[in-house]
């Protein structure tokens, strides 16, 4: 639906929220709740929380756009009452002092409610009769930024999840030229069962998770978590994990420069790339020729570069398939390579290899066109 069907005052609130929110909130859907169905005045917000998300419905009234909205929380959060005990105008919360002409009001409300939700979850978990959980909370809360969530239901066991931010690093500054809008983070997700009595407590479920944009620099899936030793707590587990993680992050940042130098070393042989990733240096495309045959060479450099050689695809600029799409070679992953070679030697070997591959690719293109 077009944005012009949303009343201007509500549009201003939504736009300010999306552009200024310190976390990446999203509007999932919009609908009408008034007599005129052409006005969209209700929507669902998807809000990141504890490495997952929560969904809240925000309901304005298009017929009374100056009025404050209502916020409807999820069915599992019926006991979440952030403003319980507030007394109308004497309250300092955003809803009680709503100013529809101030477009930052919805933003302030959502930030305020999310902070209240974090406090609600901490209070809820603190009331659980589980000594192990209480000890975990007591030993971890000195760390800033920890979020926690207790899930329960008839079809699943009760468990508590902790989202623990790792490494006091400003990734946005460490990666030159990054356009990341939000601060990039790596978290350890720690999940404990609730209230069960064990002779020997089992280790929690552990998972390393990063903000999605950080995957262009570092793959948490490739990181091997250290072993959880019987009887340890999360506070004991974290120092070794962060030491290992810090070392690999430094290697990942160094890898950017290694990829950059490799791409630069190709320039004397292939000319300047016609397209390249200037931040992470993961991709570069060169226009090449072999006699009268002109073609593109697409290089893809993995996060494991230079330990892992580039993947290469050749693309003809003269041959097309029956759908008018340029002919490409299969992905080439086997080429002469050693991480110990200097950038110039890597480039020299690559030139020799591609000179022969170009002839084979030209034959392949000509055969396709003859079919």
Essential attributes:
371 residues, alpha+beta, four-stranded antiparallel β-sheet, 6 helices
3D structure, described in words:
- InterPro entries: BRE.
- Belongs to the BABAM2 family.
- It is found in: Cytoplasm; Nucleus.
- By secondary structure, this protein is of the alpha+beta class.
- It is 31% helix and 24% strand.
- The chain contains 6 helices and 13 strands.
- The longest helix has 37 residues, at 234-270.
- It is globular, with a radius of gyration of 28 Å.
- The mean pLDDT is 90.
Shape: globular
Number of strands: 13
Strand content: 15-25%
Instruction: Give the fraction of residues assigned to helices.
Output: 25-40%
The number of helices is 6
**H-E string:** HEEEEHHEEHEEHEEEEEH
What's the rounded overall pLDDT mean?
90
Overall structural class, as computed from helix and strand content, comes to alpha+beta
- Return residue spans where pLDDT drops below 50 for at least 5 consecutive residues: none
What is the rounded Rg?
Answer: 28 Å
Strand order of the largest sheet: 9-10-11-12-13
N/C terminus separation: 47 Å
Mind summarizing the main beta sheet?
Answer: 5 strands, antiparallel
Secondary-structure map:
Blueprint: H1 8-20, E1 26-31, E2 42-49, E3 52-59, E4 70-72, H2 105-126, H3 131-140, E5 147-153, E6 156-166, H4 171-174, E7 186-193, E8 205-210, H5 234-270, E9 275-276, E10 283-290, E11 293-300, E12 311-320, E13 326-328, H6 343-370
Antiparallel strand pairs: 1-2, 2-3, 3-4, 5-6, 6-7, 7-8, 9-10, 10-11, 11-12, 12-13
């Amino acid at each position: 639906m077009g944005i012009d069907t949303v009343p201007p005052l509500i549009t201003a609130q939504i736009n300010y929220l999306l552009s200024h929110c310190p976390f990446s909130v999203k509007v999932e859907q919009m609908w009408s709740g008034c007599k005129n169905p052409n006005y969209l005045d209700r929507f669902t917000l998807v809000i990141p929380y504890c490495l997952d998300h929560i969904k809240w419905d925000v309901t304005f009234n298009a017929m009374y756009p100056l009025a404050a909205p209502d916020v409807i929380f999820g069915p599992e959060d019926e006991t979440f009452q952030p403003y319980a005990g507030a007394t109308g105008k004497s309250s300092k919360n955003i809803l009680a002092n709503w100013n529809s002409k101030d477009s930052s009001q919805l933003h302030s409300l959502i930030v305020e409610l999310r902070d209240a939700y974090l406090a609600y979850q901490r209070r809820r978990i603190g009331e659980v009769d589980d000594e192990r959980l209480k000890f975990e909370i007591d030993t971890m809360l000195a760390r800033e930024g920890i979020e926690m969530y207790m899930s329960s239901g008839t079809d699943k066991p009760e468990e508590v999840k902790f989202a623990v931010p790792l490494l006091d690093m400003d990734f946005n500054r460490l990666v030159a030229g990054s356009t990341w809008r939000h601060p990039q983070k790596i978290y350890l997700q720690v999940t404990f069962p609730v209230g069960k009595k064990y002779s020997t407590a089992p280790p929690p479920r552990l998972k390393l998770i990063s903000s999605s944009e950080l995957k262009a620099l570092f793959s948490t899936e490739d990181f091997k978590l250290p072993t959880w030793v019987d009887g340890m707590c999360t506070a004991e587990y974290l120092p070794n994990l962060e030491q290992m993680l810090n070392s690999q992050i430094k290697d990942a940042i160094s890898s950017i420069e290694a990829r950059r130098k490799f791409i630069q070393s190709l320039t004397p042989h292939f000319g300047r790339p016609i397209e390249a990733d200037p931040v992470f240096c993961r991709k570069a495309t060169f226009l090449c020729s072999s006699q009268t045959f002109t073609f593109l060479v697409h290089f893809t450099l993995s996060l494991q570069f230079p330990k892992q050689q580039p993947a290469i695809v050749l693309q003809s600029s003269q041959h097309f398939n029956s759908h008018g799409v340029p002919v490409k070679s299969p992905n080439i992953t086997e080429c002469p390579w050693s991480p110990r070679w200097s950038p110039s030697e890597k480039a020299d070997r690559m030139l020799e290899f591609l000179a022969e591959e170009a002839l084979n690719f030209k034959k392949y293109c000509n055969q396709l066109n003859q079919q």
